[in-house]
Design a protein that fits this description.
alpha+beta, Photosynthetic Reaction Center, Chain H, domain 2, 7-stranded mixed β-sheet, two-stranded antiparallel sheet, 3 helices, 13 strands, 17% helix
Length: 257
């Protein structure tokens, strides 16, 4: 019979082969697309060695941001020197910091070179994270503890400063940071403490920060503008406290057993 192709072709087998080809193409496409961020990898053997694997990197795409500017992916991040040395002379050996790891960005204190501009709200394009003194529309809930005026203590149980303001996320409507004026600072310097690195003791009216010591507050990365924080500054601040969980004291860097 003319046109009866199904009588001479194994349709089930053709369908199976078509699915295999489609699935292989899908895996290839997804595996290539996930290399738009973080690739090519830089080898610690030499700055001239790049690691990209198979499949190779896709051609760059350009993304037009809602508040102006263009982002490209993938992009060449360049090679950054890590201020640490290998504990042993073999690839993958643990790194031993050669300076202050919390400032140099080693291990848990690592930070990315994000844009040195504030994150902005979707509507209006205003800085997203600001102190309460900048936006009177936001305030602390009366049923929550008021941290303003509380003393901040480091992991050594010594006072580091006093809370003078709280920073709110206008988009998420939650507190992101507490602003602390350091004790003994000649220029009345203030630093930010992320909310996820502190505990508020309402009864004793104190804020406990276990990540770093009281003396280490003096080296918390500062702000270029006292009323806003950039994406780069946020990353460095969070990395500093994160690094303190391992590097704040010599005991923390040692094994538990």
């Amino acid at each position: 019979m003319r046109g009866a192709l199904t009588s001479y072709i194994d349709v089930a087998q053709v369908t199976l082969y078509a699915f295999w080809f489609f699935f292989a193409g899908l895996v290839f496409y997804l595996r290539r697309e996930d290399k738009r961020e973080g690739y090519p990898l830089k080898s610690d053997r030499s700055a001239q060695v790049t690691v990209q694997g198979f499949p190779p990197l896709p051609r760059p795409k350009f993304f037009y941001l809602p508040h102006g500017g263009v982002a490209q992916a993938p992009r060449d991040e360049g090679f950054e020197e890590v201020k640490a040395r290998r504990a042993e002379n073999w690839l993958g050996a643990p790194l031993i910091p050669t300076g202050d790891p919390m400032v140099d960005g080693v291990g848990p204190a690592a930070w990315a070179r994000r844009k040195d501009t504030p994150d902005v709200t979707f509507e209006g394009g205003k800085p997203r994270i600001v102190p309460l003194r900048v936006d009177p529309e936001f305030f602390l809930a009366t049923e929550d503890p008021d941290p303003l005026g509380m003393t901040v203590y480091g992991c050594d149980r010594r006072p580091a400063g006093t809370v003078v303001d709280a920073w709110v996320d206008r988009s998420e409507v939650i507190l992101r940071y507490l602003e602390v004026r350091l004790e003994g600072a000649s220029a009345a310097r203030t630093v930010l403490v992320p909310m996820n690195f502190l505990r508020i003791d309402r009864r004793r009216r104190r804020v406990n920060v276990r990540a770093i010591t009281s003396a280490q507050f003096a080296r918390v990365p500062g702000l270029r503008n006292p009323d806003e924080v950039t994406l780069l500054e946020e990353d460095r601040i969070l990395a500093y406290y994160g690094g303190g969980t391992l590097f704040a004291t010599a005991k923390r860097s040692e094994p538990l057993l």
